[in-house]
Please model this.
Amino acid sequence: MSLLDRKVRGFRLIDLAALGLLIVLIFGVYLAKTLAGGERAQIASVERQIKAEKARIRLLQAEVSHLEQPARIEHLAETYLGLAPVTIKRETTTEGLVDVVRTPPLAGPAPAPDRAVIAAAPTEARAAMALAGPAMPSAPVAAQLLTPVSGVAR
Model:
């Protein structure tokens, strides 16, 4: 009697081996399908995150576009820094730059910014204006300039 014809409790040994293999294959397919479902859920989650990040990038690009508008920057420069557009007398060509360097400046040093303008400016602008004066203020004065002023609308 060969190994393939041998019977165990009325079943051939080959039939029992095939049944065992079938059970292992069924379990393997079930496991693979379960794991694939988990991977699919992770992929969907990552795709949602990518979509949200792209929307945030578009929002930030729109905000940067708004913040970089020349009219807005010009208004802020005039309001908080006291800057004005360059007059025609102050413009020159590239050939005239040598003459500009050789001639002494027409006016003295730049005047110190007005303390009321500094107090009304946003924090970053106040720090820049406080440092841009002709002489550095003492540490207590600089700290006083950089503290928020109550009652000033931002």
